[in-house]
Amino acid sequence: MPDTSSAAAVTALPPLAAQAERLIELGVHDLARTPAAALRAYAGRATDAHPGALLAVHPGRVPASALAPLLRHRGKPGFVVVDMPDVDDFAPVGVELPEGPFHLVTGVDRGDHLANWSPEEALPELTGKGRTPLTLTEGLHWVIQQPAALERGHCFMTIGSRLRKADGSFDARTPAVWISNGTGRDGRERKDAPKVGWCWWGNRHTWLGFGSATGRVG
């Protein structure tokens, strides 16, 4: 099987203890209504068994709308596009998240090799390789811990989160994380800021890969 890892994926994440401290520094433990000591203890227990993993907080504890402003790119804070007021209603689909406030995401990859694929095309390709797409909040945790995961021209979708409509079908929007050009409703002051937006399920974008993982551990 060819090596399809993107350059950002093979750049080592900080140790889990450092990731925990980063989240504490940003106040994520308070948002999750969890003591800092509990987050530190979880990271400490997992360090030896899962080096290189990403530490994530369950979206039921800290939603995407709370995480997005914690992202930084060139000193600019992250934001959610104005036409996605329902961002927190995009829930995990086809991804089993461990119970509890924290979990680890292993083998995170940006999916550059899938750039210019539609979500509809990329999903079976990922699952066929034994991978699962990142949820939106996992993708945000990744950029918080590893800002280099977001590069102009090399950003990613998080199709592990989707919005189910009242009739049981899925909304055609799929969430993605990229860098604003400061145009349109983003506003010029947000040029170069990391943004949470959406793309259509059937559309392709040359500058968006598909974030994915090999597994999750509680």
Oligomer: single chain
β-strand percent reads 15-25%
Q: How many β-strands, per DSSP?
A: 14
Annotation field: number of helices:
6
Uncertain runs with pLDDT below 50, 5 residues or more?
Answer: 1-10
Give the biggest sheet. Answer: 5 strands, mixed
Radius of gyration: 16 Å
Reading side by side through the largest sheet, how are the strands ordered? 4-11-10-8-12
Q: Determine the structural class based on helices, strands and strand pairing.
A: alpha+beta
Whole-number tally of structural domains = 1
The dominant shape is globular
Q: Roughly how much helix do the residues carry, as a percent range? A: 10-25%
- N-to-C span: 29 Å
* Average pLDDT number: 94
Strand and helix order? HHHEHEEEEEHEHEEEEEEE
Please explain how this structure is put together:
With 218 residues, the chain is an alpha+beta fold. The protein has one domain (16-217). The protein contains 6 helices and 14 strands. The longest helix is centred in the first third of the chain and has 11 residues, at 36-46. It starts with 15 loop residues before the first helix and ends with a strand.
Question: What secondary-structure arrangement, pairings included, does this model have?
Answer:
Elements: H1 16-25, H2 28-31, H3 36-46, E1 54-57, H4 64-67, E2 72-73, E3 76-77, E4 79-80, E5 91-92, E6 102-106, H5 119-128, E7 132-133, H6 136-145, E8 155-157, E9 161-162, E10 173-179, E11 194-200, E12 208-210, E13 212-213, E14 215-217
Parallel strand pairs: 4-11, 8-12
Antiparallel strand pairs: 1-6, 2-3, 5-9, 6-14, 7-13, 8-10, 10-11
